[in-house]
Amino acid sequence: MSEEDQQHFLDVMMGGLANDDSSVGVYATRPEDYDIFSFYLEPLIREYHKIEGSTKQEHDWNIPVGEYVLTKIDPRLEKVSMRARVARNVKGFNLPPSMDKAERIKFENKMVEVFDSFGIPGKYHSLTPGHKNFISDKEADELRHKHFLFNDMTTDNHLTSSGVASDWPFGRGIWISTDETKMIWIGEEDQLRIISIVQGNDLGQVDKSLHDLLTGIEKSGLQFAEHQTYGVVTTCPTNMGTGKRQSILGKFPNITKQGTDEKKLKDLARSLGLQARGIGGEHSNMDKEGTADISPSARFGVTEAIVTKRLWEGLIKLYDLEKQAGEGGERQNCCIIQ
Ligand SMILES: Nc1ncnc2c1ncn2[C@@H]1O[C@H](COP(=O)(O)OP(=O)(O)OP(=O)(O)O)[C@@H](O)[C@H]1O
């Protein structure tokens, strides 16, 4: 390996070397890392995604609207906060761990041009000092409170030690559609996180909203970085494949014993192929009602449609366990996050 590659390899491993609590401990710094360091990254991707034999990532957004309706699980799941996001990076740019300040700003400006012309009404809010769309800390916190905007990245050791959070807050921001159901993060763990949040009960509805947004961006001519085997290229190998994470915010007071036993819910979720996170995203806590963000773990070797199906099937089982955990098999109120 050349000296230059050795340095890049060290950069890839930096997040894990600096953080004992890392689960994967690896961030790609450039799309080509997945080929140059495949001897290291391929086994890791296979193990994480439990892939045996040869798998080539396929895409399928054919998600039935009207089929995965949460009120079929429980009529009280009427107004649930549903979220779906995909991670994307654009061809020709480094991945966030190795972007410098100038490249981050250049990327943000390129995206502002897309937002000005891609046809979905909305507004861009920038965290970059001096940007024409700059928002104050107070405004940024209001957007965080609504679960729209990502946190200050410098508070996360994994993001700082790997370089993902470098040059904060330059080149960072969020585009939000006028109806506040669609949003795009700029400059977080991936260059783009394309997101939809819908309050409702049909999982297909949030997928459709996300897919409309993604298609709109693709039509703008932006070309995403793709790998011939692993699908969309993402900074963290755990997101490779579809880059899709789909979740609902649900209340599980019985399983979590009023939020005092988060581990119980996390373990049960894991056994169902799901992940349970706290109310404010990864590494956050649940509240006294055991409110958790539930999403399927799989991103690679499954299609976008399968991710939704897995969430649906997992929720049927998880809500049944919640019911069983309650006194007399009764489930308390479940879902509305205001
Ligand atoms: N169903 C949901 N409804 C509303 N907000 C949600 C929902 N699920 C997650 N969120 C919010 O989205 C934000 C981002 O969460 P988080 O960082 O865990 O996930 P992510 O964007 O998918 O990225 P990553 O998996 O890389 O951490 C948090 O504020 C979280 O509370």
TrEMBL record:
GO terms for molecular function: ATP binding; creatine kinase activity. It holds the Pfam family ATP-gua_Ptrans. Keywords: ATP-binding, Kinase, Nucleotide-binding, Transferase. Residues 78-325 form the Phosphagen kinase C-terminal domain. GO terms for cellular component: extracellular space. It comes from the Eukaryota. GO terms for biological process: phosphocreatine biosynthetic process. Residues 1-50 form the Phosphagen kinase N-terminal domain. The keyword Cell division does not apply. ATP binds at residues 81-85, 147, 193, 245-249, 277-282. Belongs to the ATP:guanido phosphotransferase family. This is Arginine kinase. The lineage of its organism: Eukaryota, Sar, Alveolata, Ciliophora, Intramacronucleata.
